[in-house]
Amino acid sequence: MAAAQDVHVRICNQEIVKFDLEVKALIQDIRDCSGPLSALTELNTKVKEKFQQLRHRIQELEQSAKEQDKESEKQVLLQEVENHKKQMLRKTAKESLAQTSSAITESLMGISRMMSQQVQQSEEAMQTLVNSSRTILDANEEFKSMSGTIQLGRKLITKYNRRELTDKLLIFLALALFLATVLYILKKRLFPFL
């Protein structure tokens, strides 16, 4: 029974060391991660899983220590359990830092996306302003062209009005001359003695 307990204790210690190294490696990977948020989240999840396994193994080691027959072996194993718990607490702080780092990174990426959207909207607004300015300039040029056409039309209408007045005056004079001629002819024919 004691041999089986010793084997179980050694296996627990080996697995604790293994999980401890894996957690350290994952925390280093989190520090070095500059990739997308999904990669950071995946690493964070793996760290949590390894911590769960590490806690479980420490609890198994603690249970084995309590089941030891010799008080000296029991105290040695309980001291090891305490040391592992203290190390795990320090690693938990690192995990907390990693989670905080992950949250900050997520927040910064969100801010970056918002800034990118703002820049995109600003570019679209700028493009709209450029297009509007171009339309206004085209309309202004067209207005200048129409203004010239309107001025020419005004001059032509004024000239036409003067021509109409002149034509009326000429028609009136021609009619008066015609009537004077008719009267002269009638006078000479009807009243030759006058």
What do these coordinates show?
The chain is mainly alpha-helical. It has a domain at 1-116: Methane Monooxygenase Hydroxylase, Chain G, domain 1, CATH 1.20.58. The chain is built from 3 helices and no strands. α1 packs antiparallel against α2 (37-66). The protein is rod-shaped, with a radius of gyration of 53 Å. The model has no long low-confidence stretch (mean pLDDT 82).
What is the topology?
Blueprint: H1 2-32, H2 37-66, H3 71-190
Helix pairs in contact: 1-2, 1-3, 2-3
Characteristic key phrases:
194 residues; mainly alpha; Methane Monooxygenase Hydroxylase, Chain G, domain 1; 3 helices; rod-shaped
The name of the CATH architecture of the domain at 1-116 is Up-down Bundle
- Detail the poorly predicted runs: none
In whole angstroms, the N-to-C terminal distance is: 174 Å
What is the number of helices? 3
Briefly note the structural class of the backbone. mainly alpha
Helix fraction, binned, reads over 70%
Q: Over the alpha carbons, how many angstroms does the gyration radius reach?
A: 53 Å
CATH topology of the domain at 1-116: Methane Monooxygenase Hydroxylase, Chain G, domain 1
Shape: rod-shaped
Order of helices and strands: HHH
Tell me the number of strands. Answer: 0
Q: How confident is the prediction overall: mean pLDDT?
A: 82
Largest sheet: none
CATH class category name of the domain at 1-116: Mainly Alpha
Strand portion:
under 5%
